[in-house]
Specification:
Blueprint (H helix, E strand, L loop, with lengths): L30 H9 L13 H15 L14 H22 L2 E4 L3 E7 L2 E6 L2 E4 L6 E7 L4 E5 L1 E2 L1 E5 L1 H4 E3 L5 E12 L2 H6 L4 H18 L3 H5 L3 H18 L4 E12 L5 H70 L1 H17 L20 H10 L21 H13 L1
Antiparallel strand pairs: 1-4, 2-3, 2-5, 6-10, 7-8, 9-10, 10-11
């Protein structure tokens, strides 16, 4: 129990007193004021400068102890376990910070990509797609590279063919003509390490390699070849040459395709070249038409020649065969004539007259009459008489009577004997 002070009461301090608020000089204060001073840190700067580091460290330890649920100071001084508690708290905080620092080294890589890990700026290894870990910054760092992305470099234009870059597109051919070419190069990555660290400003490097390669290919070609049939072959040659150069540079690039967007002469002579191209197209069209006409006429002529030759061969064969047949027949007739001359002569006479009369117009005249001639169109009468539909008529339209010619057997025999005597 505190004994109250008995004696002369100390006068109250004035507000104008310079020592007001700093406590009394005799150090006699009540318990509440002592407890209030013990619990509140004195962070006020001294009259000579800022607070000392020891005081700041004590304030920090007191705040840490309060966080842990314990008082850092008691009246009259601290307990022996207070310093251990402070060190435990500091260790927990430090461990938490270390865990947070280590967890910052986790990263993920999606399919089709790879990550390149460096240790203090030097390449260490590459990671596969998935969840990976590395030492956190500043020990290690990583960079993700997309290996499947198709990248494009435009040479001679930017964004569109109309936006030309004449310094890149104008080239000189082997026949000393200027030509304007715009093309695009598509490529993928095959080595992430070489792509990141072997070359600087990779896209500019690929653009320069593409421009150099196509200038070499075009410089070895004629202008007509570049403008017409050589477009596909030029793209393939540029692709091969670019791949060779990039492999020597260790660029880590795989050229996928080289596409010629536009191949044309300079704008100043575009109209003249258009006229020349049109004339060339007309020439080609006329040549194709002539070739088509020749393809149509020549087979027909060849077929006609073959037909005529075959007809001539058939005619020759027929004539030869007829001649041979006639000769054989004549030999047979001679043999028969030698056996029976009279009969053979009569037969030959009758066959000859039959052959003559079958192809000539025949008239019959009655010499015993009064001399009037009667026209008998026998060649027309025979078909009509065979059909039974008409009768023979004279030239005046009258019907012609049938005439029966009768002769005596003696007269016929006389005629035969007369022919035989001849």
């Amino acid at each position: 129990m505190r004994i109250p002070f008995i004696g002369r009461r100390k006068p109250l301090l004035n507000l104008n007193d310079p020592k007001w608020g700093q406590g009394s000089n005799d150090g006699k204060q009540d318990d509440k004021q002592d407890d209030r001073k013990d619990n509140k840190p004195d962070n006020k700067p001294s009259e000579n400068g800022p607070p000392e580091l020891d005081q700041l460290w004590r304030d920090f330890n007191q705040a840490l102890a309060r966080l842990l649920g314990k008082d850092s100071q008691r009246q009259g001084g601290g307990s022996p376990n207070e310093s251990g508690t402070v060190f435990i708290g500091v260790g927990l905080i430090a461990g938490l910070l270390v865990l947070l620092w280590l967890s910052s080294g986790f990263f993920s890589v999606v399919q089709g990509q790879t990550a390149v890990v460096t240790t203090f700026g030097k390449y260490s290894y590459k990671t596969l797609p998935g969840f990976n870990w590395r030492w956190p910054y500043p020990i290690q760092a990583h960079e993700v590279v997309n290996m499947q992305q198709v990248r494009t470099v435009e040479v001679g234009y930017r964004g569109g063919i109309k936006n030309k870059q004449l310094k890149e597109s104008l080239m000189l051919t082997d026949d000393e003509n200027i030509i304007d070419i715009q093309f695009a190069v598509q490529y993928t990555l095959k080595d992430a390490v070489n792509w990141l660290y072997k070359n600087k400003d990779q896209e500019a490097m690929i653009s320069q390699v593409a421009e150099t390669s196509i200038r070499e290919i075009v410089g070895r070609s004629k202008m007509d070849f570049v403008l017409k049939e050589g477009r596909a072959s030029i793209g393939a040659d540029v692709k091969v040459l670019m791949q060779q150069v990039l492999d020597r540079y260790d660029a880590g690039v795989q050229i996928a395709n080289v596409t010629l967007q536009a191949v044309q002469p300079p704008e100043q002579v575009q109209e003249a070249f258009d006229d020349a191209v049109k004339a060339e197209q007309d020439k080609e069209r006329l040549r194709n038409e002539g070739q088509a006409y020749a393809n149509d006429v020549i087979p027909k002529a060849e077929g006609e020649v073959s037909r005529v030759l075959q007809d001539a061969e058939a005619y020759r064969s027929r004539v030869v065969a007829n001649a041979e047949g006639n000769a054989s027949r004549f030999k047979q007739v001679v043999n028969e004539y030698q056996k029976a001359p009279a009969v053979t002569r009569d037969r030959m006479y009758l066959e000859t007259m039959q052959q003559i009369f079958s192809s000539t117009t025949k008239m019959m005249i009655d010499s015993k009459s009064s001399g009037n001639m009667i026209y008998l169109p026998i060649d027309k009468m025979l078909p009509q008489s065979e059909g039974g539909q008409a009768k023979p008529t004279t030239g005046t339209g009258e019907s012609v009577p049938s005439i029966e010619v009768r002769g005596s057997r003696d007269s016929r025999n006389h005629d035969v004997r007369e022919r035989e005597s001849r």
